[in-house]
Amino acid sequence: MKKLLTIIFLAVFSVAFGQNTGLNTANPSAMLDIVSKGNTAATNALNINNSAAARLLRMTDQGHLGINTNSPTAVLHVNSSGTANVKHDNLPVLDATGFTPPFNTFGVNSDGNGVNLGGTVKYLYYQNGDIYPPTYNATTNTGGFSLYTTNQYTNLSIKNDAGLKGNTIGFTFGTDASATINGQSANNVNYIIIPEPGVYLFEFYGTARCNRYNNTQNYTFTGQMQVNTIFATASGTSYSTNTIFRGLMSGMRSDNGSTHVNTYSIANPQTLTVALPTTQPNQKIALFFQYESGETNQFTNNECYFNVPAGANFSYYFIVTKI
């Protein structure tokens, strides 16, 4: 009887004066303060089992909480095997018809259960890390391409080399030793082949530049030149324009607005964005760069190229996403 009275007294004293209950601690800092005996994933701080001794919840001494698992390996580890997945109430429903890869790979069904709707994101990423073409010589200002006539097209190379950073779409690559683009002859055209029908988003960005040096070339500049970045489709080795993005290349000038006396460069970022629907497999495409107008008959000595701007690590990039 004496022991029972002592237990009752201690319980009442704790509620009346302490308000906090501690397990394995003499100084509880909360209404219920549990201090485990270890700090590793191998020991348990808290277990909750059902009447059949099945583990419902486990908190390890390392802070991993497991639900329906005996061995949690993350801060929250939920094993949905044999039960419904994680349920979220009052969240917007994203069903299969509203799911658009690759922009979302997680949805919620009408019952509030999280379900994985994803798969492999289908894309291609190409990054040219050097000046283009690689034959350009900055010392002699030659070896690039000319920009003075609409009859000349420069192929922008996209191929399976060190610049290819990803290709889950499964594009294949090739080179036409001899081809035509809009009826004009072109040699060594690098192309890519779209393997299957669908809708594809193509994005290109690069910086074209033409340098003037004091050499025997006679320059008379007005300060602007229009150029085209061309997305072309092909039938055999015959390429034709699908989409043109026109850019304005503006000459670099001094503080008073005049062109530089001894050196001159004309540069501007070139961009292209194309959404292409294809209905047949193995569609062949290529990229080209072309003079349009301005600075008539000035850059005729292959003094133009795609440069790597200061602080950048590429002269141009090309991204394709299946949408």
Descriptive report:
The protein is mainly β and 323 residues long. The longest helix has 17 residues, at 2-18. It has a 5-stranded mixed β-barrel with strand order 13-14-19-16-17. It has a 4-stranded mixed beta sheet with strand order 3-4-5-6, with no helix packed on it. A two-stranded parallel ribbon has the order 1-2. The protein folds into 3 domains: 20-82, no CATH class; 84-119, no CATH class; 123-322, no CATH class. The protein is built from 1 helix and 21 strands. It starts with a helix and ends with a strand.
Helix/strand layout:
Layout: H1 2-18, E1 21-23, E2 32-34, E3 44-49, E4 55-60, E5 65-67, E6 76-78, E7 106-108, E8 114-116, E9 123-128, E10 145-147, E11 153-156, E12 164-167, E13 172-181, E14 184-194, E15 198-212, E16 224-235, E17 238-251, E18 264-278, E19 283-293, E20 299-306, E21 316-322
Parallel strand pairs: 1-2, 5-6, 13-17
Antiparallel strand pairs: 3-4, 4-5, 7-8, 9-12, 9-21, 10-20, 11-19, 13-14, 14-19, 15-18, 15-20, 15-21, 16-17, 16-19, 17-18
Protein name: C1q domain-containing protein
Keywords: Signal
Signal peptide: 1-18
